[in-house]
Structure formats: C-alpha cells, structure tokens
Amino acid sequence: MDQHASTLLAFPPQDDSVDNETYHKAAVAHVQRISKMIKERSRDLVVFSAELFNVLPSRNPVVDPAVNSLSYLAILHALLFPSLAAKLPQDLILQKLVTFMMVFDGRQCRYGGPPLLEIMDAVGSGRLLPPSVAVECLASAILKLDPSGTILTSSHILLTKLAYDTDNIQPALPVIEKDIVYYPGMANHQDAPYLCDLELPPPLYISKTSGLTTSLKSSMVLEYDLVGGMMYCARREWWKARKAFERVITFPTKDGGCSKIMVEAFKKWILVSLLADGRHSNTPPPHTSESTVKIFGILARSYVSFATAFATDDVEQLKLEAHNNAQLWMEDGNVGLVEEVMASYQKWRVLSLQDIYTKISIAEIRQQTKSAETGAVLNKDEDVEALIHNMIIAGMLKGVIEKNDDGTKFLLFLSPTTHLSERELAKEIQGYAAKLREIKKIFTATSQRLGTSKEYIKWVVKESKRDKSSEAQDPTLAFDTQIDDEDLMGGAQDQ
Predict the structure, then answer these.
(1) Fewer CB within 10 A of the terminal residue: the chain, N end or C end?
(2) pLDDT tens digits for 282-300?
(3) Which is nearest to 38 in space by CA: 128, 100, 115?
(4) Rounded Cα–Cα distance for residues 414 and 417 (Å)
(5) Domain residue spans of the chain
(6) What is the pTM of this model?
(7) How are beta strands 216-217 and 399-403 bridged, if at all?
(8) Residues 230-263: pLDDT tens digits?
C-alpha cells in the first residue's frame, strides 16, 4: 500500500513554475510507472482503492482527482473496466467517477490517452450514469481538455446523441455552441513535442495518436451538425438551427455529390429559415455546389413549394401544400417543424405590415391577416392583441399598442435601432475584443498549417512564374479552387 501510494502521489511536480520540457518528462515518466503498476499489480489498485479514495482511514495522503488526476484516472479505470469492481459499492465508484469528470486537471490528462477516452466513451454511452448526469460530466470533460471547444472529437458525437435522445440538451450547450475549426488528423498537424504546452492549438495534442479521440468519418461530422441543429429546434432557437443545418448542406463533397443526410438537413433548413426569417431564400448557402443545389431542388421540391406559399398572403394555398404533403412530413420526421411554421404564419404576416404602415389599428390587422391553422381571420380583436403581445414579449416584434380617445387600439411599429448606453457599448466592445483574441490564435495556427501544405507551396511556385501583370494579386485568392474537396476536411474520412 505504501509503495503504491508513493508512486501515485509522485506527480505532478510540487513546483508550479516548471517549464514545459520538465513537466512533459515528469508526466511521461509517471505514465510509464502507472502503466507498469496496472500491468503487474492492477488488482492492488482495486484492493486499496478505498484507502486511496479516502473512503477508509489510511496513514497515507489520499489521491486528489483535481491534483493527482492521472493517478486518480488509473484507479478509476481499474475499478470500471472490464466491469464495475465489487470491492467498493457501485454507487460510490460512480460518485467518484462524477467527481473526477467535473474537476480533473485538463493539462495533466492530456497524457491520459486511451484510458481517459475509454471512460469518456462509457459515460457517453449512457450505461454508467443517469443521462442528465452523464451529459453534464461529458460536456465538462470535453471542455477541460479543450477550453476553446474548437476541435471536433469522437466524444462530441456521443454527447450530442445522448443529449438529444434523452432530452438533456441544456447541459450540452456549452460544448455545442462552440465554433468547430479543427478535426482530428488534419493534414500538416503533427503531434507536439510537449503535450502540456498550454499555448498549443487543440489538434496538436488531441489526436488519434495521443489517444484522446478516434478518427472521424465524414458521416459522423455531418451527423454532429444535423443533431446539433435538431437540438436547437427543440429549444426553438431557429437562427442557430439554421446555421447548423447550413454546415451540413455546404459540406465539401467529391464530384458534386450529395448524401442522404445532406438532403435531410436541406429540408429542415428550409423550414427553420421560415421560422427564423419568415421566408426561404432562393439563394442557396454560400459554397454550395451547383450540382448539389440541383439535387436539393429535385428531392426537396415539396418543401420549396411549401416555402413559396408561406411567403404569400394566399393562406389557402399554404394549407393545401401542408395537407397534400402530410405523409411526406411524417416520413421525414418534420411534422413538428411544419406545425411550428403554420403557427408562425400569421405572426410573419403581421410583421410584413410594417413595410406599409408605421401605425395600424388592431381591427385592420385582424382583417388583413389570417391564421394558417384555420385559414380564417381571428374571431375578435382581443385575439389579435394577445398575438401581438406575445410577439413583443418574444422579441419578434418591436412595437407598442396604443389606445385613442375613442377607444380604438393601434399597433405602433418602432424602429429596430437600439440605442446602447455607454456602459452597454463598452461591454459590447470588450466582447468583440475577446472574440478577436480567440480568432487570432486560430488564424495563427491555420496559417502555420497552410504554410506547410504541399498544395499551397505548389500553388505559390506556380503563381511566381506568372506574368508580372498578375503579381499584385493575392495568391491565396484562387488557391482554394485548386484543392480537392476531400482535403478541405483533413481528418474526416469518407465512409
């Protein structure tokens, strides 16, 4: 027991100011010692786990999950795999698991590799913890390893599926709302010499080689954004849902191909566009290939017709489109979205009146707008007033209801311009500055990756041989046209 405790507590270094090289060597040596212990005396970790976890009195210091994270990980792994150990009560083991996932040292656990990923996979599968707890633990672990949240990993895929399938979306949002910039195995990203360097971009320490993620197929990347969009739909965050579906629609493909999941996302993109903007743009998202757009137009023809009717005052045509395609909505799993669209129709018709009026009576609004659910005007002015109040509360409409001396009520449309106070403006500027600092790090890492790309070097050499008349042009402007589609996603492998 004493010997094991001494080994487990030997890391990290007591001096927090050690340089990356010293820390790295100490971490590697510690991992080797622990690996040897697990290989030769794994049973001892189970036998003495109660004392090491401070469940039973011991004269040795206990292993702290926030301080001795690698050692704590080793004990947990021995208790959890191949199956839950019987030495401690299972509830207690799972309690220790939750504590570890919420407090472990992200820098230290960069050296945790396969054991940590195996634990994260088990948590993400939902077989160890209640779904609400599992989602929160997995989200916490992902952000401890990568606080920027900019690299997509196999753990992200598990997180979205578990959160959406069990309706535990809120705890997953801190991860889902991050902008993905990197993917495992991207070209020209080699593993760093010192994984502990806190200035490293995520791809240099989160990789298949480091064991903190598996490789991702292109279908997994598509599924991540599709499920993410559906999570936003469940929260009625239509703008975010639209962006997520757009990422699926514009996913780079070879030879202008189009997968089934891309078509599914396009259909949902049309519906959430109606909810977010009150209309469907005839212009596809940027970077969508012409051949892909044609395929979308054919396979989603009914959705386009429905969206076209939505943008008009012809409520009967909209109802007809909705009714005639009821079976299609059901087969595609979009019944709920279509119902949301139909319920929002009259709200968007009210909003369209501000293009004509600055002030209009409630009675006129009732006569000029109809409900898509009934196809008729609302029964009384009070119903229209309630509809407008709900729109104002939801932030959909900027306006106020006024009452004349004769009792007539009017809707006054207000300017969308918002005047910020000096304090609010300063806060907004600080937010933009922080965002720019984050982007600078990403830009630097991406520039380094691009600068070592053989495709880019070939392009620069080719450009240097051109006529001097073209010297003023930026060689990067046309570079993207020279790269094959599969290179754009780096480590995302085709299925």
Answers:
(1) C
(2) 777 877 888 888 999 999 9
(3) 115
(4) 9
(5) 2-214
(6) 0.84
(7) unpaired
(8) 999 999 999 999 999 999 999 988 777 789 999 9
